[in-house]
């Protein structure tokens, strides 16, 4: 049982996490270190610099500064939380504690020095793993995109008659 199946997290982040777990199983990944704010949001719904994840085959562990803990719990009550001091060292220690053998990370989102540290810990580069996930839209995402397009189309109909060739953007905005 995954950590999400105990609660009723029927939302897009639940679906994304299930998709990620499926991909991890297919590719024999024991863990995935998630360091980009956009990717943390993609999995949990929490959007704040300084938040990191270690996704295992059946868990999501958030590494957070202490000041984010309550906010994170209000958004994502199904992930485990660890308050970190040194993110790379703390993630490595947790991976060792959980006896994770094949832990991956996305080198395209890290500095060379940080990627080198992770490789030194035995983590493996997986490249841009979230890019492919982001390309597929479903459920809430499709509804939101449709609504955004409808709003943009209405706004364009209002502004189109006012726009003249040669106008600057600032003039249209006034």
Shape: elongated
Radius of gyration: 20 Å
- The proportion of strand residues reads 5-15%
Largest sheet at a glance? 6 strands, mixed
Helix coverage percent: 40-55%
Features:
6 strands; 174 residues; six-stranded mixed sheet; alpha/beta; 8 helices; disordered N terminus; single chain
Topology record:
Layout: H1 12-26, E1 31-34, H2 37-44, E2 52-56, E3 60-64, H3 69-75, E4 80-83, H4 87-97, E5 103-105, H5 112-120, E6 124-125, H6 129-135, H7 140-159, H8 169-173
Helix pairs in contact: 1-2
Give an account of the 3D structure.
Strands 4-3-2-1-5-6 form a six-stranded mixed β-sheet. It is an alpha/beta fold and 174 residues long. The longest helix has 20 residues. The protein is built from eight helices and six strands, in the order αβαββαβαβαβααα.
In short:
The chain has 174 residues and is an alpha/beta fold. The protein has 8 helices and 6 strands; from the N terminus they run αβαββαβαβαβααα. Helix 1 packs across helix 2.
């Amino acid at each position: 049982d995954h950590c999400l199946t105990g609660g009723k997290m029927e939302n897009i982040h639940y679906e994304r996490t299930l998709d990620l777990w499926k991909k991890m199983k297919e590719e024999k990944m024991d863990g995935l270190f998630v360091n980009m704010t956009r990717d943390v949001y993609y999995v949990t719904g929490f959007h704040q610099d300084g938040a990191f994840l270690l996704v295992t085959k059946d868990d999501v562990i958030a590494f957070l500064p202490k000041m984010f803990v309550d906010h994170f719990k209000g958004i994502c009550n199904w992930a485990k939380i660890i308050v970190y001091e040194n993110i790379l060292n703390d993630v490595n220690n947790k991976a060792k504690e959980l006896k994770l053998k094949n832990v991956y990370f996305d080198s395209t989102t890290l500095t060379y020095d940080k990627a080198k540290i992770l490789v030194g810990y035995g983590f493996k580069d997986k490249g841009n793993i979230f890019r492919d996930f982001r390309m597929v839209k479903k459920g809430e995402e499709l509804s939101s995109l449709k609504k955004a397009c409808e709003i943009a189309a209405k706004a364009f109909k209002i502004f189109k008659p006012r726009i003249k060739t040669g106008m600057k953007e600032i003039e249209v905005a006034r």
